[in-house]
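input
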Amino acid sequence: MVGLTGGIGSGKSTVARMFADLGVHWVDADDVAREVVEPGTPALAAIAEHFGAAILQADGALDRAALRRIVFDAPDERAWLESLLHPVIRDELVRQLRHPEERIPGYALPYVMLVSPLLLETDQHRLVSEVLVVDVPEAVQVERTMARDQNDRAQVERIMAAQMPRQTRRERATTIIDNNRPAAQVAQQVRTLHEALVNHYA
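output
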């Protein structure tokens, strides 16, 4: 299994779609993180019991913005939430990535991909044998995230400060994908890397 990660605004999803265009089965940990707290799930019930019903929207769905405000300002609450969700997310990631040929008839590639912003911050990195880091300069991360999420600079910089430092992430990479270039050049690097991975795992 191959892991793909990068800081906020680095373009992980864009690069993941490039691998998908080459036929690679991939699962995004952010999508799974939303799935495991959908209405009716044990994780959402535990969150509501811990934080109170005010953390739920009128339709019973999780109020993510309200929860984010609570845990961002309270490290103990953030630790509690992570201790609840990280194992659940990990188990679901493994389930969705296992036996891709059963999910995708005819799937014959020798690897699958886990896309996760917290690949290196959690034990998810133990699931993979390669760590691909999508990398751009920090100034580019800020500008892209501000444009994408309509967040102000201070908020984006706070999010980045809570993530693994860029240099540490680069040092832990098996391969660095430079996403501060024209898309065609990034796509070419992805194609070359994909061919190497197919040969490596074949």
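quick obs: The mean pLDDT is 92.
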